[in-house]
């Protein structure tokens, strides 16, 4: 009997493709949609969505690099969109199927990595700054304050070369995306000097240690910092005075996709004010959608960690794609810092 | 008979070929390619990855540190594991119970157990809380995020791999030999050194190999308990496949590491054979 069940199951699996509802395969960051986002889309479009999540750009890239991953829509960070386009991995967007792009904030309608949104639809964004305990007085205001002797053993930096080397560069007044060997060497020396103060190079794990009071300061992403601040009233967040990295995660359609129209429909749906608002308020991430932001509850809309005011935001620098030589130099430096 | 043997072995041959040799050849091929502009791999074919690994003292340093940490962990595992194995081998009817206790940690994942150590060792963790409560220390001790924590985590994780092979040789040890030694006037210490240890040598060597090799390639423990501050060779390989997106270099490092380990094992095996002759 079991064997027969198996055969029936296999037959129905093999036969399902042509008869079933249209499908769409979406691969997105973890905690990036609301509970109703996907069911809502399935209900109104009749398209069945296979939704799966990833934790880093590299994880997603490794899967789609071969060109027959089976995914239709993925969400690379803004500095990955250019490389994906040049590697022929993503398809150009058809604006006639995207009537909701006008909802995006002005600066996301013409972002530097894709001037006319020919390839991607910005979805959520975020920045890197300093999460600190209010006990720490005077409060840190600049990357340079993370070189303070008082923080010895009570401070973490991100385990991410872009952010950590970026902080070293910005502390020295150099551009975040520099690939000048001389700039990178200066940043390396600064970070090696800082290492004896650093407790560890951690990403999200630093959040719990900030909440528990083990740590006094952490280089941290605003979204993660917001979660920590909700868990503990002792914490505050600073956007460093020298400048800070800004990221945006954008929806793109893979070139390999056989369901480009459905994929456009999905991206258009995500750009709707109500949909983007529900996702942003549930995930506590910063939406790139101006209409959605207006719909957010007051407290979240005016949250200065997620949405720093214009005067602060102008210090931010977009994280950019780096040429291979610069990337390699940076990796060598990062290896040296971590093993020094 | 011959045909039967062929067909019985076919599945494992297919498994080894398809899931071990084929991926290994792909890694070998990648290691002679060049990193694409944005990751991936492309021609030209080159030995540059190996040159880079050997010529840069930074990578030699990381390799040396990995050998040091793995060696230290193996030594401590041996010092802790041998007495434990001896105790279990001599504990008669409760032997099976103890062996099951040694293997008990395998019932949960290594990742979860490593996280448990993080909770024990952190500033507000159990160990520091107890020490402060007992008045041993005023300030929390920095127990986490250093090389000692990495070694501790590795000893904890791989101790069973040392205990089991030593136990299996000690368990089969002929008690008559020990009685004979004692009859001939050997103290318990002398018979331990001159009878038990030499007879347990295959288990000791096997245990050391089983502990040393995974410690050498460890990447989870240095990341979680070392806080990413003392990179080991496993982390270097991992970084090439993730943030650096340099698969060819990552492949070259892992193959070089594999070659080193195989050379070491081969030398060990030859020396053991010579000892037997």
Summarize the structure.
Chain A is of the alpha/beta class. Chain A has helices at residues 2-19, 37-45, 57-64, 78-86, 106-109, 161-171, 181-195, 206-211, 222-231, 260-270, 273-283, 290-295, 298-301, 310-313, 324-339; strands spanning 23-29, 48-54, 73-74, 121-133, 155-157, 198-201, 217-221, 235-238, 244-253, 286-287, 316-318.
What secondary-structure arrangement, pairings included, does this model have?
The complex is a heterodimer of chains A (340) and B (277).
Chain A lengths: L1 H18 L3 E7 L7 H9 L2 E7 L2 H8 L8 E2 L3 H9 L19 H4 L11 E13 L21 E3 L3 H11 L9 H15 L2 E4 L4 H6 L5 E5 H10 L3 E4 L5 E10 L6 H11 L2 H11 L2 E2 L2 H6 L2 H4 L8 H4 L2 E3 L5 H16 L1
Parallel strand pairs in A: 1-2, 1-3, 5-6, 5-7, 9-11
Antiparallel strand pairs in A: 3-9, 4-7, 4-8, 4-9, 4-10
Helix pairs in contact in A: 6-7, 7-15
Chain B lengths: L1 H29 L3 E2 L5 E2 L5 H8 L1 H33 L5 H9 L6 H12 L4 H8 L13 H25 L3 H9 L4 H29 L3 H5 L8 H9 L5 H30 L1
Antiparallel strand pairs in B: 1-2
Helix pairs in contact in B: 3-7, 3-9, 7-9, 8-9, 11-12
Describe this structure in words.
The complex is a heterodimer of chains A (340) and B (277). Chain A has 340 residues and is of the alpha/beta class. Chain A is 42% helix and 18% strand. In chain A, strands 1, 2, 3, 4, 5, 6, 7, 8, 9, 10 and 11 form an eleven-stranded mixed sheet that branches. In chain A, strand 1 (23-29), helix 2 (37-45) and strand 2 form a beta-alpha-beta unit. Chain B has a two-stranded antiparallel sheet. By secondary structure, chain B is mainly α. Chain B contains twelve helices and two strands. The two termini of chain B are 35 Å apart. Chain B has a domain at 58-230: MetI-like (MetI-like fold), CATH 1.10.3720. Classes of the chains: A alpha/beta (340), B mainly alpha (277). The interface between A and B is large, with 37 and 36 residues.
